[in-house]
Design goal:
There is one protein chain. The protein is an alpha+beta fold. The chain has a domain of about 100 residues. Helix content is about 30%, strand content about 15%. A 3-stranded antiparallel beta sheet has the order 3-5-4. It has a two-stranded antiparallel ribbon with strand order 1-2. A hairpin with a 6-residue loop joins strand 1 and strand 2. The termini are far apart.
Length: about 160
C-alpha cells in the first residue's frame, strides 16, 4: 500500500492526502524521510547520536538554539510511537562528535533559563500566598486572589 508520513509526528496517511491533519505540514513518502536522514549523515560525515526525546515543538526550539551554535541537528519521529500511542514523541539527533558539546550547551541553556533559588529572596510572611503574594490571612485555606490551596482541612 502506498503511504505518506508526517515528518513531525510520524502519522501515516493514504498517499492521496497531502497535509498532516494534526501538524499542518506537508506529508512525505517514507523514502523522502530516509533521504533527509541520509543527507544529514552525509553532511556531518558521521553517524548521528540521539540527544533528546520529546514533543516536536520543544525539539524544534532546541534545534534552533543548537544550530545557532553551529551544531547540526536532525529531528525524526521516534520509532514505534504513533499519535495517541505515546504522545507522538520525536528524537533530536546530533553528530556523535558534537554530542558532548550539545549536552554542555543545553545544560547551560537550561541552567540560565531555570536558575536555582539563590537564598536571597524576600521572606514571605505567614499570611502571604507564596504564588502571587496576596495577603490571604493566616487562617485562609485558599488564596482568594489566585486560588492556590494554602492549607488542607483534615476532616
Amino acid at each position: 500500500m502506498d503511504v505518506k508520513l508526517c515528518p513531525q509526528c510520524g502519522a501515516e496517511y493514504f498517499a492521496h492526502i497531502t497535509e498532516c491533519a494534526e501538524c499542518k505540514v506537508p506529508l512525505q513518502r517514507p523514502e523522502e524521510l530516509e533521504r533527509a536522514r541520509a543527507e544529514f549523515v552525509s553532511e556531518v560525515g558521521e553517524d548521528a547520536a540521539p540527544l533528546m526525546e520529546g514533543k516536536m515543538a520543544e525539539l524544534k526550539e532546541l534545534r534552533r538554539l543548537l544550530e545557532k551554535e553551529g551544531i547540526k541537528t536532525y529531528i525524526n519521529h521516534a520509532s514505534g510511537c504513533k499519535p495517541g500511542g505515546c504522545n507522538s514523541t520525536s528524537l533530536l539527533f546530533v553528530a556523535k562528535s558534537n554530542a558532548e558539546a550539545a549536552v554542555s550547551f543545553l545544560q547551560k541553556h537550561f541552567a540560565h533559563n531555570n536558575p536555582e533559588p539563590s537564598g536571597h529572596e524576600e521572606d514571605i510572611s505567614e499570611d502571604q500566598c507564596p504564588a502571587c503574594g496576596f495577603h490571604a490571612g493566616v487562617d485562609a485555606m485558599e488564596c482568594p486572589d489566585c486560588g492556590l490551596v494554602l492549607a488542607f482541612n483534615e476532616g
